[in-house]
Structure formats: C-alpha cells, structure tokens
Amino acid sequence: MAAGTRQTGRVRVLVAPDCFTGTLTAPEAAGAIEAGWRRHAPGDDVEVCPLSDGGPGFVDVLHRALDGRLLTVTVPGPLGHPVPASVLLVPDEDGVVAYVESAQACGLHLVAREVPPDRRDPGVTTTRGVGALLRAARDAGARRIVVGLGGSGTNDGGAGLLADLVTELRGGRASGVSERLARGGAALAGVTAEDLGDLAALREDWSGIEIALASDVDVPLLGLQGASAGFAAQKGASPERAQELERCLGDFAAAAASALGLDRRVSSTPGAGAAGGLGFGLMLLRAVRIPGVQAVLSAVRFGDRSRRSDLVVTGEGCFDWQSLRGKVVTGVAHEALAAGVPVVVIAGQVMVGRREALEIGVESVYPVARTPAEVEEALADPVATLTARAERVARTWSR
Prior knowledge:
Number of strands: 11
Number of domains: 2
Helix content: 40-55%
CATH architecture of the largest domain: Alpha-Beta Complex
Distance between the termini: 10 Å
Largest sheet: 6 strands, mixed
Number of helices: 18
CATH class of the largest domain: Alpha Beta
Strand order of the largest sheet: 3-4-5-6-7-8
C-alpha cells in the first residue's frame, strides 16, 4: 500500500466496474461494491467510478463525466418495434461531439424483453435504429459522432444502419433493397454490388461527419473469431444458423467492398466484427475504431484518479476470454499498472485462470458465484450477493 495509507490507516479505494450484463448497470454494481466495502471498512476512502467499454451504459457513464445535453429520441428496436434512446451532445472547441450507444437501439436486452431464450434468432434482428440515432446526432449539429458498440442482439453487419441512412438519402423512400437490408443478417444471402448501388452516394453524404466506433472488442467481421462464429451463439443462434450467417455476411462484405471500390480486406479490420458486424457497416462510412474503454477512461480522467488510490476494484458479470480483448477490466488493469496501483476483480463468474489474470495486470480475482446454486442465488438477488462478496474482499485488502 502507498505511504499515505500507512500514515492514515485508511485505504483509498477506487471502485470502477463495468455493468454486470443482464443484472446490474455499472452505477448499480459500483454502489453494491461500495456498500459491501464500507460494511467491513467504514473508515476507508471509497471513490466510485462506473465505467463502460462502449456497450450498455456508455452514454450514462459519459453523461456523468462530461455533463452535456441528452437528446431523447424514439428509434426502431432490433425487432422493429419503437424503443426510447438518447444522444449525448457535448460542446467542444470544434463544435458539438455526439455520443451514441448502439445497445439502446439494437441491444440483446431489448430482444430479451420480447423473445424467450429458446426462440431468439440474430438472423432477423436489425441495426436500423442505430442509423436513426446517427441521423438524430447529425441533425442536432454534431460534426463528430462517437458510437459505442457492444451488447448487441444483432448480426447483420450494419446493413440495417445503412438501410436507414439510404432511405433518408432517398427522401424517405425505401427501395426493395433497403427494405431487404433492414430485415437482418439472414436476408443478406446473395446480395450483390449492384444491389448496393446507393452506398457510394451515402458514403459521400456522410463524408463531412467524423465517426468513431468505440468498440469493446477488436475482432474482424468474418472467420473463427468474427461476428457470427464468435458471438452469434450467445444471441440465440444454433451452430447451423451461425454458419449460415457467416456466409450471409461474407456475401454482404464482398458486395459492399465491390460497390465502393474498397479492398476486400476491410472486413478483416480490427473491430469490424464488433456488435454483430455493426463496426463493419460504420467503417463503410469511413468510421475509425477507437478502443471503447480507452475513450471512457480518458473522459472520466481515470489515470489521475487511479494515481490517487491505493487499490482499484473493478468487475463485470463474467470474467472470461472476451475480458482479455479490450474490455473494461483490461483497460483498468493497464491504467492502474502504469500508476503502480494493484487491481482486483470481482465478477459474477470467473472463467479466466490466475496466470491469465496476472498477465494483464490483475492481482486477484473473486467470483460472486462458483456453483450452479450460487449462480441462481446471484441472479435472484444480484445486489445482495455482490455486496456480500465485496465485504469479504475488503477483509483481505483493507486494514
């Protein structure tokens, strides 16, 4: 522990978790960890800093850090039904920067509200609502739009987003092709460059807008670690459906690259596979990827806050292989390691070994649930179980 801790006897703790997907938002998780810590060590200095990697909670976390103005809009959800969403507008020296959270328009949680797990199909969900969010941001005067990617229930390569923007470009008149693009990834089989003839004009129409895609993962669109093979199953796809979607996105990627005269390797760009390939659709509009967690860490001045701390406690719903590829835990560990501050992880479940955790700079990992019975208990009362685990962790790390 730092010298200040030895002198005062208090531990300065920075609580900086991501959301616990499906159970707790990042602020809720941070609050539960703080409450558990204070139960054991009420004299410690505990600072709460909820985080996001671009997925659910992205706009909320940034609004807390940057203030700005929230623009409330209604957009098509992943199944086509209207859903509420918001755009964060923040003035800067060059004008207005807009922050958009794609999960608000195409998140898996929106699918879960309407469809039971055994009937979910990422082949029919759409990113059309994300296009509506981009239009709202541009109409509000934004010249730079940062799109948070993660937590999607879609697998359409961003085709739905492009369909929405093409319809606007055509004065609100949808073509047969744009309607097809808005029907989900499974509808993309056999699409041709001729079908995507409006993409060049669309790309030019958006050339004056700087778009950054803040992605939680750096995977490509296609292949074993791509959108379909790596993530479609958790959205409800069977192995056969995931293979079908891989072929459909392959057709779409080849047709889009040909229509725009791009190198076909654009689909291999890191981040193209994020959010079911939404990253790829944005890249067709010249979007540049930035690590989502780094964008948030910079906005909340995490480096300064970690240097004032003796310990950083982070966490997420499941600490697994995806956590090692650009998610909150990895970003926090990297920043804290640079500041010389130890990091511990409290996660709903832990699927990563100690050696892997140490390699990214995590000192210790603590699961909330280990057995099926404990998992069931945690899902039934996530706040109480996370609070109890944080209290036990405090016994180890607090004086």
